[in-house]
Design goal:
The protein has about 400 residues and is mainly alpha-helical. Helices cover about 70% and strands about 5% of the residues. A hairpin with a 2-residue loop joins strand 1 and strand 2. Helix 5 (about 90-110) crosses helix 6 (about 135-150), helix 6 (about 135-150) packs parallel to helix 15 and helix 8 (about 165-180) packs antiparallel against helix 9 (about 185-200).
Length: about 400
């Protein structure tokens, strides 16, 4: 007598696996944390490669800048996961302190700051370390602006409550940053403020008015500073002054073009030997394209897309207005800065001088970004389903230890 096996269960399709993964209450947390850590790892690896020649020229060691970036990354990840354990009430309680601290630093840098490459936007700390207040101001305006509009509640439908005092304070920050000579981060404050207002439900005609005023302001500021106008002209026609104002953009595009599909190999960049200015900071994306090719740059774009998706998912799923506004502000910060950086090195936008988030060298940029993402992780942990999943996970771990 022969025995026949029962019908086998059909294998689970990839679509159902993805659906099950996204239905996990902690999926938003994992998406934000995972994409952040992967971008950070890529950043440390590429800074090690891109900075080696400059580091040897300045410090006599090819790894000094890489070691500093690694230290910033370790500290930043520790801070991010400590912040991920905080509460929404914690951040709302810090809102005014963060704002006053940010404004104080922006004023202080105009008095005691040091000038680097024509911009007085750094405060000397100790040894080789410096602080860039404009990077911390982004975090300050997000937390304060989100708390402000949450407190106004239903009154934000009136323009006077929607714009005052958020817009005057953001404008003051922009003026202080522009006095330092930092046009890129002033533009970022404007983008962050617009993101918070959009998440708060501001009418589209308001953005049309603010956008028009912003374009006029950019035009006037470009006329007022010859180097900004040179950037615009080199963006419009890099070949017109290939050995002058168009040099950085031309060399960046050359690096991207020579990488091919898989790149010339990690560490094998030719542009980092001095041909490409700011290879480990603002123009690290072309070095990624040269060494890792189209595949490497595409992977970086996918990770930024995943991070943006995770932040957007957190923004639309939350019922807490403060979480929604703060998440929108952080999302606008990271996405806009990434678009400005990558768009400028591709020649799609004028060079703005902002670093690539989580990837470019610099502790003053990296630490506030990781702190802001830690705040979003804290928000993701506090979603109702996530709280229950964490409680079950903690209970299961406790039983296993016993």
């Amino acid at each position: 007598m022969t025995m026949t096996a029962g019908p086998r269960a059909a294998p689970e399709s990839m679509r159902h696996r993805l659906k099950r993964a996204f239905d996990n209450p902690l999926s938003t947390y994992y998406i934000i944390a995972g994409s952040t850590l992967l971008l950070l790892v890529i950043g440390v690896v590429m800074v090690t490669s891109a900075s080696s020649i400059e580091s040897f020229r300045v410090f006599g060691s090819a790894y000094t800048l890489a070691q500093r970036q690694g230290m910033f990354a370790i500290i930043g990840v520790f801070v991010m996961f400590v912040i991920a354990r905080t509460s929404t009430q914690f951040w709302r309680g810090l809102a005014w302190l963060l704002l006053i601290g940010s404004l104080g630093l922006l004023v202080a840098v105009l008095i005691i700051g040091v000038e680097v490459r024509g911009q007085q936007n750094w405060i000397e700390l100790f040894g080789p370390f410096r602080l860039q207040p404009s990077e911390f101001a982004k975090f300050g305006i997000i937390v304060w602006g989100a708390d402000l509009l949450t407190r106004k509640d239903l009154r934000i439908h009136a323009w006077s409550h929607l714009l005052v005092p958020l817009l005057p304070v953001a404008f003051l920050m922009m003026v202080l940053i522009l006095l330092e000579g930092d046009f890129g981060n002033a533009l970022m404050i404007a983008a962050i403020t617009a993101g918070i207002l959009f998440a708060a439900g501001a009418p589209l005609r308001l953005f049309a008015v603010l956008g028009g005023l912003g374009l006029v302001g950019v035009y006037l500021l470009s006329l007022a500073a010859p180097y900004r106008m040179a950037r615009v002209m080199s963006w419009m026609d890099p070949a017109a002054d290939r050995l002058g104002s168009g040099w950085q953009l031309t060399q960046g595009q050359y690096a991207l073009g020579t990488g091919g599909l898989l790149g010339v190999g990690l560490g094998a960049s030719r542009e980092k030997w001095g041909a490409l200015p700011e290879a480990h900071t603002d123009f690290i994306f072309p070095v990624i394209g040269e060494e890792l090719g189209l595949a490497g740059t595409f992977f970086v774009l996918i990770l930024f897309g995943a991070l943006a998706f995770g932040i957007f998912r957190l923004t639309v799923r939350t019922s807490d207005p403060f979480v929604r506004l703060a998440s929108a502000g952080v999302g606008c910060w990271i996405v806009t800065q990434a678009v400005l950086n990558i768009g400028s090195v591709l020649g799609l936008l004028p060079i703005s001088g902002v670093p690539l988030p989580l990837v470019s060298y610099g502790g003053s940029s990296l630490l506030p970004t990781l702190a802001a993402l830690g705040m979003l992780l804290a928000f993701a942990r506090q979603e109702p389903g996530a709280r229950m999943a964490l409680r079950r996970k903690s209970t299961a771990q406790t039983k296993r230890r016993r």
